[in-house]
Specification:
- By secondary structure, this protein is mainly beta.
- It contains no helices and 23 strands.
- It has strands at 7-10, 15-18, 22-24, 26-29, 37-40, 45-48, 54-57, 61-62, 66-70, 76-79, 82-83, 89-93, 95-98, 103-104, 108-111, 116-118, 126-127, 133-136, 145-148, 155-156, 163-165, 176-179, 184-185.
- It has a 7-stranded parallel sheet with strand order 3-6-9-12-15-18-21, with no helix packed on it.
- The chain is globular.
- The N and C termini lie far apart (43 Å).
């Protein structure tokens, strides 16, 4: 059985099917170019919570379930390819980065205290599709939720994207930090 300390390494042709809430320390591929995949069932969440774990996951995560990052220290998961899972993405701590040309279907990204949604590594601006959005769950500028950008790699919201900045208190400063050389762009009609 899988436990919170498990390192899951997928070989070519293998599929990790998650039908209940599962927590692992790391999710990775056995080697470059392997085609192992993950499928997260409806109502299930796959949580990656390792300490100081960095990984590149180059294949698809599909299904109706959710993906969560709760790692500590330098933990970062870089996603490539087609990420078609239709559940939410919870970045409770650590970083989820999107690599070049990744497609990202998750309808809502929750970015927690000291957590980062990194679109700067993508190489081009990520444009959220209709209905996609994000929630900044952090409470102060001392420990903000961060959207990391880079030259040519920002984040553009759709006209019907829902953006929620939680726990805002002017005495504590802005709970959302947009870092890097690109921008977070809101289309007319955002709520």
């Amino acid at each position: 059985s899988l436990g919170s300390g498990s390192v899951v390494t997928l070989d070519s042709g293998a599929t990790l099917t998650v039908n209940n809430n599962v927590t692992v320390a790391k999710l990775a591929e056995k080697g470059g170019g392997n085609a192992g995949t993950v499928s997260i069932g409806n109502g299930a969440t796959l949580t990656v919570n390792g300490a100081n774990q960095s990984t590149f996951y180059m294949n698809s995560i599909s299904g109706a379930g959710s993906l969560a990052m709760s790692g500590s220290g330098t933990t970062k998961m870089q996603l490539y390819g087609t990420q078609s899972y239709s559940g939410d993405t919870f970045i409770n701590s650590a970083t989820i980065g999107l690599q070049p040309s990744v497609t990202f279907a998750s309808p809502r990204v929750y970015i927690g205290t000291n957590a980062t949604f990194d679109v700067g590594t993508r190489g081009t601006t990520l444009t959220f599709a209709s209905g996609q959005g994000f929630t900044a769950v952090a409470g102060s500028s001392a420990s903000p939720a961060t959207i990391a950008t880079a030259t040519g790699s920002g984040l553009t919201m759709a006209s019907d994207s829902v953006v929620v900045i939680g726990n805002f208190n002017s005495a504590n400063g802005a709970p959302l930090n947009v870092s890097g050389a690109a921008s977070l762009t809101f289309a007319a009609g955002n709520t």
